[in-house]
Amino acid sequence: MTAYVTHRLLQTLVVLLLMSVAVYGLIWLMPGDPIDLMVSANPDLTAADGARLRALYGLDRPFAERYLAWLQAALGGDLGYSRQYARPVLEIVGPRMANTLILVGLSFVASVALAFPLGLIAARRPYSAADNAVNLFCFAGISIPPFWLALLLIMAFSVGLGWLPAGGVPAEGGLGAEAAHLVLPVATLTLGSVAAYARFIRGETIAALRLDFVRTAQAKGATPWRVLTRHALRNALIPVVTVIGLHFGTVFSGALITETMFAYPGMGKLIYDSIMGNDFNLALAGLLLVTLITLLSNLAADLLYVRLDPRVNYEGART
Amino acid sequence: MPSCRRPFLRNALILGLVLASLWPGARGAAARDLTIGITQFPSTFNPLIDSMMAKSFILGMTRRPVTAYDADWNLVCLLCAELPTLENGLAKIEPLKDGGEGMALTLKIHPDATWGDGVPVTAEDVVFTCQVGRHPDTGVGNFEAFRRILDVEVLDDKTVVLHGDRVTFDYNDMSGLTLLPAHLERPAFAEPREYRNRTLFDTDTANPGLYFGPYRITEVALGSHVVLERNETWWGATPAFDRITVRTIENTAALEANLLSGGIDYIAGELGLTVDQALAFEKRHGETFKVLYRSGLAYEHIDLNLDSPILKDRRVRRALLTAIDRAAISERLFEGRQPVANGFVNPLDWVHDPDLPEYPYDPAAAAALLDKAGWADIRGGIRHNAAGEPLRVVLMTTAGNRMRELVEQVLQSQWKQVGIETEIRNEPARVFFGETVTMRRFPHMAMFAWISSPENVPRTTQHSNQIPSEANAWAGQNYPGYSRPEVDDLIDAIEVELDRDKRLALWKRLQAIYAEELPVLPLYFRADPYVMPKWLDGVRPTGHQYPSTLWVEEWRVAE
Amino acid sequence: MSDAATLGVHTSLTRMMMRRFLEHRLAVVGGVVLVLLCGLCAGAPLLEAALGLDATEVDLFARFEGPSAAHWLGTDELGRDVFLRLLYGGRVSLFVALTAALAAAVIGTAIGILAGYRGGWADALLMRLTDTVIALPLLPLLIVLAKVDLAKLGLPAEAAHGEAAQLWRLIAIIALFGWTTVARLVRGATLSVREREFVRAAEALGARSTRIMLVHILPNVMTPVIVATTLSMGGIVLFESVLSFLGLGVQPPMPSWGNMMTGAHELIWSHAELVLYPGGLIFLTVIAFNFLGDGLQDAFDPRAARR
């Protein structure tokens, strides 16, 4: 077990390192640099001032040299300063990460809580009216463009009905205000994932219902609901948990759209803004952190899979 | 499917209207807090580093530059006790060591000016600020303003003499000088290269000692909002609001929604909605909100690359301008809120010449001009010259700027009517300003805006030694490549002409040549819409680069 | 087994698949909707001529007009015909989706067959690569890629910033990350095909492995390729719209459903229909692709439960 986990962690590190080279390279290939942006915003700045500032920040040095300097500092725990916020990168990332975790966590709980009943209702009688309704809902959920959904929700609940704030985080007002600001973003994120989960749960449960021992239980006279929840669901749980675990990481990407639409100060919006604002250090740190979380959640899903299914040992787990 | 949603939406919007109309009225009387929405978050709070509107906007409430142009476009003292002029003797022309002439300005700091921690604002702060500003390693944005100050001479605690390196008509404009608190910032400056990262403005933003304006920053949530509270050491009128919160919401649709839902009270014009958004908003909510439009010094125009064979011909340039219906663009897209520009000087500027030629929409005249210029052969709707080359031009601007993209498409369509084919090729702002425009790599036309202060001498944009090239390390902003000896002479003369009447004559001549030569297609002067509740009074949009917050103490709740 | 018998089995299998597909009503509806949409979009120039309109013609005196006989869905913020612009936007969006999905299918099939047939370290390496790509935070990376300046890679600025470059770059970026599902499915199919007699026979006859992969294996793994590609198409339409919406995909004046919403979303309070139309079309297209893919999956693989 320990050996396996160590192996996987090492692998994660290698991927991270490769990612850092790739992302650093890509950012280097992005047009202009922070100084260009500064010069264009200020008519009093001359080209000579630009050159002076560029040399000051080391932006005139070649790629390899800059990357190695960055890597060395990063390994020493110094991820540099953000250009946009004039703070050390880690100081900015921390609170943003917390915000995103709240958003993604709430949506995650809500989706799982909704997806299981929906999936089971659908699986109980495949092709019934209930199943068709759930199915239609699921297809709609995975097909709706997230930014459009966000706009529809804002139109309906913020401007139309005036029930909920359209975005941002409250500067005051305590927990109640904060909760109100979270409703629409969480709803936007949840609709997509609940659809994906429910479809999967339904599929796995139907497959499990066809297994021999489940049929035996049915034959023995167990009530349909009991068969469904006790036997089929338990068997379906393994692949379901894995997929949900794998999905957790990708929810972060979805949060980028949601956070942007609702002006919610989370990681996704931070990464987007830093890329758009050419904030090298911040974009790099943000992207790597999100990758790390995705990789770790995959690892967690794998470990959970092994735990739930005693037939698989660590060596045989999907790597 | 959309059709089945529409009734619901319409009802929802009506309901929203009703709710919105109840909401702000209810809170107006009791408001002691104000929440302002803007679309940008400052990258730093240090007054000298970087230069962006979000910072100027917020810092406008917390500190004052020595001087600034007010809403009537007059230069006024904000931190100084008296504006130095040659007439009152506080400004003097003096000989320079190298033989030229310089100026000595006596700056009297307002006697009651005090930092938020009780330490008086003194000459020491001026000396320190100039020291930081002139240091090449600090990364200070506005280097030029400090380079012109040769020496700072301290007379007493509240009085200094600034020795400048030249004589210009705008000698007493000290708007670039905003003071740093020497008693707090000196340690951070011990290592100039690290100053940028160590400045207390960013490491300890809520420190009261950093501010001396009517408000001071008490809380910062990065990327989200800034809270300001009254500064007890402020010497001027007591501001009306206990607390002002500035929230950043980049997405203008969300900004609007927040205004309607009460999340914010007021959308600042400096960084807010576009004119067409504001116009649509006013139509729906004009009963509960008021919108002030201030057209100002943002001069939207198209730089023409005069090196291109097509645009070298003045007749073609004139045809391009007469073929577009700028009046209709202004009227239909902006409901007349953004007046058509006939030159680079805003009509509100006192040096503006009202008698310039106007080039109204006249496609027939444009066609005649193009015929004369040799583009007479129309094939497939596109004009060709004798050599068989098509009249095809490339129009570029910043990608993602919706208003510019809209205007581009209008121009493209109108030029097509007279046989000019336009390719729209937009680039992200960084490429556009970073390389394409600054290195004159646009083949024909580049659309953008200049934002300036009143009576701004167009040296960098029109003087022939300001044409960027490899040889001058891409210095200057004369992107069209406009080169006329008379223009150079006029610019040199205006800068040093201290007599207003004589200067006005020079200005008129400069504008006349510009209108005759058309190195640039003037479009219109952009207007900023200030969307505020009816209960908010006293906000005076300035229309130039100095934000309205510099007079925040005049903002009031209407009775 | 004689050839005739094989043929018989083959046709009955096809017929069975057809029947199963037709039973999946939603899939049929999805297919019909897509055919209609594609037809309409492809025929946009004809329709334009028939209606006597010009989709690019700006009319500042006819902004935000309601639906009329001349303009079926009214006019937009510049007085252009909304219906025609939607069709032209659809051409771009669907072209990007189809091309990118095709490119992704080619990459995925190549990787899947190579991994499945070669096995061993090649398989391990390729599947590790697939897993890693799946695990990457997709959207932020797409945004970084969309911002890369091709001119810095040595392309001339004209080509790098032109309209066509934007489009192909978008397609390339989406294909670069969209191949993983196909690769996994194809690998699985290849693993089973590899053991079949005709492959063994070809190997025994000394056929080169490239030939075996192309001639013997590829035709037999087309089914999962088709299913996976159809299913991924919806996701790709979504990606295109998201990137264009964020201003990183298709650039105006070329319309796409995504970038038509970028402009219009600032006007949602006053002219909500300009947001509803393109968004609704994206939704319709994506859901149709998903229905279709689902139906195909059912038809080709009866054992799999409907997911």
CATH class of the domain at 97-278 in chain A: Mainly Alpha
Number of strands of chain B: 20
Number of helices of chain A: 12
- The chain-level structural class of chain B is alpha+beta
- What distance lies between the first and last C-alpha atoms of chain B, to the nearest angstrom? 48 Å
Instruction: Give the topology string of chain A: H per helix, E per strand.
Output: HHHHHHHHHHHH
Percentage of β-strand residues of chain B: 15-25%
Contiguous helical run count of chain B:
17
Main sheet overview of chain B:
5 strands, mixed
Q: Estimate the helix proportion of chain A, in percent.
A: over 70%
List the helices and strands and how they pair.
The complex is a heterotrimer of chains A (319), B (559) and C (307).
Chain A: H1 2-29, H2 34-41, H3 47-56, H4 63-75, H5 89-124, H6 129-143, H7 146-160, H8 174-209, H9 212-219, H10 224-261, H11 267-276, H12 280-308
Chain B: H1 2-28, E1 33-38, H2 53-59, E2 67-69, E3 75-77, E4 91-95, E5 101-108, H3 123-134, H4 143-147, E6 149-156, E7 159-164, H5 182-185, H6 192-198, H7 200-203, E8 215-221, E9 225-230, E10 243-248, H8 252-261, E11 266-267, H9 275-285, E12 289-304, H10 314-322, H11 326-334, H12 363-372, E13 377-379, E14 382-384, E15 392-396, H13 402-417, E16 421-424, H14 429-437, E17 445-451, H15 459-462, H16 485-496, H17 500-517, E18 520-533, E19 536-537, E20 556-557
Parallel strand pairs in B: 1-10, 1-11, 15-16, 15-17
Antiparallel strand pairs in B: 2-3, 4-5, 5-7, 6-7, 8-9, 9-10, 12-17, 12-18, 13-14, 19-20
Chain C: H1 3-23, H2 25-42, H3 44-51, H4 82-118, H5 120-135, H6 138-147, H7 157-161, H8 163-178, H9 180-194, H10 197-204, H11 209-217, H12 222-245, H13 257-264, H14 273-300
Helix pairs in contact in C: 1-14, 2-4, 2-14, 3-4, 4-5, 4-8, 4-9, 4-12, 4-14, 6-8, 9-12, 10-11, 12-13, 12-14, 13-14
